[in-house]
Design a protein that fits this description.
It is built from seven helices and 16 strands. By secondary structure, it is α+β, with helices and mostly antiparallel strands. The strands form five sheets. Strands 2, 3, 4 and 5 form a four-stranded antiparallel beta sheet that branches. The protein has a four-stranded antiparallel beta sheet with strand order 9-10-11-16. Strands 12-13-14-15 form a four-stranded antiparallel beta sheet, with no helix packed on it. A hairpin with a 2-residue loop joins strand 9 and strand 10. The chain is globular. Bound molecules: flavin-adenine dinucleotide and FE2/S2 (inorganic) cluster (FES). FE2/S2 (inorganic) cluster binds next to loops.
C-alpha cells in the first residue's frame, strides 16, 4: 500500500521481498479492517491525552475509508460485520469496560454486549457496527499488480541487507544477490502471472496450521546435531525440548525453539541472524530476545551466551527444560 501511494505520487519505488509477497504477518491475518482494535484505545489513553486517542481513531478512519474505496474500485469482496472485543474470563471484564469508555471518548459509536451465543467462554464484549473484513492475499495481489502498473518493480526472494547512496546520490538497495550485471535491464520483465498464483487467505491460514505441524514433526525427528558454524543456526530436540541452537560472533547459544505466541517452532534466518516464527512472524535475536511481535515474551535461554569455540567438543546430554506455558 505504501509502495502504491509513493508510486502514485511520482516517487521512484522498488519493492524488495525476502520471501514471497504475503509470506510475513500480513498473509496470515484474518483481514479485519476495524476501528475497534482489541484494547488498543485504552492502552494509548493510558499514556497519552484524549486528543491523541481521538486523532489515532481519525487516522484509522481515514485509512479504513481509503482501503474500502480501493476494494470497491477493484471489485475486491468485502464483508461488512460488527467488530467485537470480548472477555474470555471475569478478569478481562474491566479491560472490556475500559475499552468501551476509551473508544466512546474518542468518538466511536461502540456499545456494550452482555450476552452472545458463542461456543467459547464469553464474559461480555464491546462492539462496533459496520466494520469490515477481507481476504488479505487477494488485496495484496491486486495492490502488487497496481504497483507494477505504476512501473515500480517487485523483487521477490531477495533479502535486503542495507541501503546506501551512490556518488550521484542514487539510492541503492544492497541485496543478497549483489550488483546486477549490466545486461540485466534488458531481461527485467516482471512476471505478473506469478501474482495470480498467490493463495487465498483461507489457504494461507491452513498453511499456518501446516507450518505448525511440520515444524513440530521436523523437531520430533531430530536429535543432537553438530555445533552450527558461524552465522548459522538450526533446531534440534534435546529430550522433550525443541532447542534452537545458533552461533553468532563465536558464541553458541541455545534457546527454546517454541515461540511463546502460539507455540510455532522458530526457524533460523541466515540474513538477519535471527530466529523467525513462520506462523505469525514473531522474531527473536540469537539469544532469544524478542525483536518483533505478536509474541510479547522472549525465547527462554537454555544455555549461553557461552563462548564455545566453533570447533569445540560436542555438547553435553539432553535437557528437559520446558517453557512455562506448556
Ligand atoms: C495474528 C495476527 C493477526 C492480525 N490481524 C490483523 C487484522 O485482522 N487486521 C489488521 O489490520 N491487522 C492485523 N494484524 C496486524 C497486521 O497484520 C500487521 O500490522 C501487518 O501485517 C504488518 O505488515 P508489514 O508489511 O509491516 O509486515 P509483514 O506482513 O510481516 O511483511 C514484512 C515482510 O518483509 C519481509 N522481510 C523481512 N526482512 C526482510 C529483508 N531483510 N529483506 C527483504 N524482505 C524482508 C518478510 O519476508 C515479510 O514478507 C494482525 C497481526 C497478527 C500477528
Ligand atoms: S506462533 Fe504466532 S508468531 Fe509464533
Amino acid at each position: 500500500m505504501t509502495a502504491l501511494l509513493l508510486a502514485e505520487s511520482g516517487v521512484e519505488v522498488a519493492v524488495v521481498e525476502g520471501r514471497r509477497l504475503g509470506a510475513g504477518t500480513t498473509g496470515a491475518t484474518t483481514g479485519k479492517v476495524s476501528l475497534l482494535q482489541g484494547t488498543r484505545a485504552q492502552r494509548i489513553a493510558a499514556r497519552h491525552s484524549d486528543r491523541t486517542v481521538t486523532e489515532y481513531v481519525e487516522a484509522n478512519r481515514a485509512g479504513q475509508q481509503w482501503l474500502l474505496r480501493y476494494c470497491e474500485e477493484h471489485a475486491l469482496p468485502v464483508q461488512r460485520v460488527h467488530a467485537l472485543t470480548y472477555a474470555q474470563n471475569e478478569y478481562e471484564i474491566p479491560a472490556v469496560r475500559a475499552e468501551l469508555q476509551a473508544t466512546r471518548a474518542a468518538g466511536l459509536d461502540t456499545y456494550p454486549v452482555d450476552d452472545l451465543d458463542v461456543p467459547f467462554p464469553f464474559h461480555g464484549a464491546v462492539g462496533l457496527a459496520d466494520q469490515a473484513q477481507l481476504d488479505p492475499m487477494a488485496l495484496l495481489a491486486t495492490l502488487a499488480a497496481d504497483v507494477e502498473a505504476h512501473a515500480a518493480p517487485i523483487f521477490e526472494s531477495t533479502i535486503a541487507h542495507g541501503v546506501h547512496h551512490r556518488d550521484n546520490d542514487d539510492l541503492v538497495i544492497d541485496t543478497e544477490h549483489g550488483e546486477p550485471p549490466r545486461w540485466s535491464g534488458a531481461l527485467a520483465s516482471w512476471r505478473p502471472a506469478e501474482l495470480k498464483a498467490i493463495p487465498s487467505a483461507a489457504q494461507t491460514n491452513s498453511a499456518v496450521a501446516l507450518r505448525l505441524s511440520t515444524g513440530w514433526l521436523r523437531v520430533a525427528r531430530s536429535g543432537y546435531g553438530p555445533i552450527p558454524t558461524e552465522g548459522c543456526g538450526h533446531v534440534e530436540r534435546h529430550g522433550l525440548q525443541p532447542t534452537a541452537v545458533s552461533t553468532v560472533d563465536g558464541k553458541t547459544t541455545e534457546v527454546s525453539a517454541i515461540c511463546p505466541h502460539l507455540y510455532g517452532i522458530v526457524r533460523w534466518n541466515d540474513a538477519e541472524k535471527s530466529w523467525d516464527c513462520p506462523l505469525h512472524g514473531s522474531r527473536f535475536t540469537a539469544d532469544g530476545t524478542l525483536l518483533d511481535g505478536p509474541a510479547t515474551a522472549s525465547l527462554p535461554l537454555i544455555s549461553g551466551p557461552a563462548a564455545v569455540p566453533v570447533t569445540g567438543p560436542p555438547r553435553g546430554g539432553p535437557t528437559t527444560v520446558l517453557p512455562e506455558k506448556i
